[in-house]
Amino acid sequence: MKPARIIILAVAVGAAGLAGLIAMRMTGTKQVVMQQAETIVQKEPTVRVLVSAENLPVGSRLNDKAVRWADWPETALVDGFITDRAMPDAVRDVTGSVVRMPLFAGEPVRREKIADAKTNIMSALLPAGKRAVATEISVSTGAGGFILPNDRVDIIMVRQAAGRGYTTEVVLENIRVLAIDQQIQERDDGVKAVVGTTATLELTPDQAKVMSVAQQMADRLTLSLRSIADAQEEDTRSADYLLSGGTNAPAIQLIKSGEIVTSTTSAGGSPATQAAGASAGGVQDGTEMR
């Protein structure tokens, strides 16, 4: 190869290398540094709380398999929860206790929902200040057997009134049924009807007195089943007048010659009232037309 050609090639290679170097310096390579943000998850403090290990109906007896410890957010603690801080031996301590209100699996066990192991089951189911009173029922007086424990009923009294056939009176309203016979909860086999002979009712002391009088006076007591939507209503109605020997019989309206005469009948009422009742004969709904 001729020297001139070698010189030309060398100059060309050198020029190309110089051009590349200049180009690299002019453009440069920008290095992008990616900083990965570290996500820090702060664990919320928890407390071990006693919870139900299974569904527990009313009247169940607790044992070591029915309850367990579970982590619970400390900020979500509620008064009445049983914690391992306050009761480290709670599983052993609550063994044998009676469930007063239904507990679902995973639900915290609250002190007000269970009763002491030494307590009788029925007395454990009664809230403070309440009384348990039993009354006889049948298929015809107990809504065909569809009244179950924890249902709400009205107590209707049917009795014979002198010379006026039979009268009906609602003596108690919105009363909770504690048990049918000795059954205090719905059956496990899913049967939704119980044909029993005795219904045990949850009453106040005054309602218990009214019920006792009604049982003596009535020819028949009927339990009228109420809707579950009425459970939150107050049981305000009570036939307290029965305790004083009074009556809640409706007034008799005697309509004669277009004139309405109203008088109230009662056991041992006034002569005018008795006369009106006698003249009424077969009174229907407290009204007679002549």
From TrEMBL:
UniProt keyword list: Membrane, Transmembrane, Transmembrane helix
Top-level taxon in the UniProt lineage: Bacteria
Species assigned in the record: Ectorhizobium quercum
Ranges of biased composition (kind: Low complexity): 264-278
InterPro entries tied to this protein: Pilus_assmbl_Flp-typ_CpaB (IPR017592), RcpC_dom (IPR031571), SAF (IPR013974)
Keyword Transmembrane in record: yes
Name of the protein in its database record: Flp pilus assembly protein CpaB
Annotated ranges, domain SAF: 47-115
One Pfam family from the record: SAF
